[in-house]
Amino acid sequence: MTTTTTAPTAGAVAPRQHNPVHRPSLLRLTAVELRKLADTRAGRWLLITIGLVAAAIVTLQLIYAREAAQTFVNFFTPSLLPIGVLLPVLGILSITSEWSQRTALTTYALVPRRERVVAAKLIAVVLAALASVLASLAIAAVGTLVASATGGAGSWRIDGTLILNAVILQVTGVLMGAAFGLLLLNPPLAIVGYLLLPTLWGVLGEVVRPLRGPASWLDTSRTMEPLFSSDTITGEQWGRMAVSLLVWMVLPLAAGLVRTLRREVS
Using an 8 Å Cβ cutoff, are 178 and 125 in contact? Predict the structure, then answer.
């Protein structure tokens, strides 16, 4: 019996092998978003400005503050407010950069599940807020060392609750900025909205008498004040803080996420 074999036809194409495509992990996406925070000119200069502001405050205190007031707590606390004003802008730029720089098409083509990109951006800005608290602590430590060497009080005593309150302030602030960025998806509009709307509400709460009651629950400048003005925060104060953050952070985040997921990318 004769066995015949068929020679492969010239030009025949071998079966194509499909290699599985693994989606990037949330950790990798977060690392990418952290790098993006400093990649753009605006983000880079904003981070530099935050560092310079904290250093300038400590320097002015070393020059002009009384020696008895040159303590770790007094170096640390004043830097939180100006940094807390600038950090939300970083959150806004992180969220809106995909749309303002026209990279949304590339980003969401590589990662079709947009909620994973948004989650990575939120984690990145929260890490940036935590880093800002560490930076404030480090600069305050340098100021305390200099004060100790130049005859100042140089006291290192600090309550751990104060550090926790600083973390709450910076994290909620940067998430509020990110919420406005998600909701408006336009850098100038989101920055103006974040700075103007809560301020306008606070002014109306002071001027219009019927709004004074609601303002005590919805004005974040009032509800967040006990974080640094009180040794102990009551249950009612925590409740007011939660309500104000629900209105200015949670609801815009939820609405902005829905808008981002549904917006057509072009």
Answer: yes
Q: What's the pTM value of the predicted model, to 2 decimals?
A: 0.86
Q: Are 168 and 86 in contact (CB under 8 A)?
A: no
Q: Which residues of 128-161 are buried (b: 16+ CB within 10 A; e: fewer)?
A: bbeebbebbbebbeebbebbeeeebbbbeebeee
Q: Is 226 helix (H, G, I), strand (E, B) or coil?
A: helix
- In angstroms, the first-to-last Cα distance of the chain is 67
The string of pLDDT tens digits covering residues 63-114 is: 888 888 888 999 999 888 888 888 999 999 999 888 877 777 788 878 888 8
CA–CA distance, 101 with 76 (Å, rounded to integer): 36
Query: What whole-number distance in Å separates Cα of residue 217 and Cα of residue 208?
Result: 15
Q: At 202, list the tokens.
A: 């606070």
Helix (H, G, I), strand (E, B) or coil at 78: helix
Q: Is residue 187 within 8 Å of residue 96, measured between CB atoms?
A: yes
* Cβ contact 52:82 at 8 Å: no
What tokens does 196 get?
A: 């103007």
Cα–Cα distance between 219 and 212 in angstroms, integer?
10
What one-character DSSP code corresponds to residue 150? T
CA distance 256 to 186: 12
What does the pLDDT look like over 149-190, one tens digit per residue? Answer: 887 777 898 888 999 999 999 999 999 999 999 999 899 999
DSSP 246: I
Does the pLDDT at position 241 exceed 90? yes
Q: Which amino acid is at 214?
A: P
Output DSSP code: residue 152: S
CA nearest neighbour of 257 among 128, 121, 125, 129? 121
The CA-based diameter of the chain, rounded to the nearest angstrom, is 110
As a three-state string, the secondary structure of 108-127 is HHHCCCHHHHHHHHHHHHHH
